[in-house]
Recover the amino acids of this structure.
């Protein structure tokens, strides 16, 4: 059975997103949307009903009230979503570390791998697939967990082990996400011959060294066995 390369506590980092700033931005977007939507509805309704002038005077009150409602709704909705996502992520990690087969069943050749590392595999700079990166004498394999869509369920192979190279590189994101984050942690790039994979892990520099040490250990044992 493979051993966890990092303890569960390594994934209990403080959130990097500027929650308050982003909540305000979300609130402002909802304010514009609510104000415009209810304003248009009220305007069309008053025109159809040929309402008296006294009702038209209340149109701006409705628009401003709707905008304020959107501001509060958007802000609190974003904060609620942040809390929900963080709890969901924590629950997924707990199940991975408890080796819940419904979340992350072991690979068929589990005996070939010595270490496992929960990680995110970047499909695009802004989207990653969660799963487990396995390390063994044959190489590295990333196995997505069961919550992902079926089209992202196939394992990613990075082998043979002797050709694996790791590097810590900047994680480039769009200006909108950069504004939302206090900092954008770098990612780990793993190459093996013509295959390449970019992964999100806690403390990338430290984790990269741990992976390199594990690879060196496995290669040394392979040489001793010759």
């Amino acid at each position: 059975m493979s051993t966890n390369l990092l303890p569960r506590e390594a994934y209990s980092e403080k959130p990097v997103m500027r929650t308050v700033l982003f909540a305000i931005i979300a609130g402002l977007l909802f304010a514009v949307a609510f104000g415009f939507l209810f304003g248009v509805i009220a305007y069309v309704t008053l025109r159809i009903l040929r309402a008296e002038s006294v009702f038209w005077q209340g149109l701006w009150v409705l628009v401003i009230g709707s905008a304020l409602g959107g501001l509060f709704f958007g802000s609190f909705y974003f904060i609620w979503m942040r809390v929900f996502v963080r709890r969901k992520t924590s629950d997924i990690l707990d199940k991975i570390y408890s080796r819940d087969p419904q979340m992350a069943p072991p690979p068929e050749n589990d005996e070939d791998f010595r270490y496992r590392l929960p990680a995110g595999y970047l499909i695009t700079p802004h989207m990653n697939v969660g799963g487990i990166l396995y390390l063994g004498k044959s190489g590295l394999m990333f196995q997505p967990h069961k919550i992902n869509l079926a089209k992202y369920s196939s394992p990613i192979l990075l082998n043979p082990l002797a050709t694996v190279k790791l590097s810590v590189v900047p994680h480039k994101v769009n200006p909108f996400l950069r504004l939302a984050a206090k900092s954008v942690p770098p990612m780990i790039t793993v190459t093996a011959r013509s295959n390449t994979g970019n992964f999100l892990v806690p403390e990338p520099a430290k984790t990269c060294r741990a992976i390199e040490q594990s690879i060196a250990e496995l290669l040394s044992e392979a040489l001793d066995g010759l």
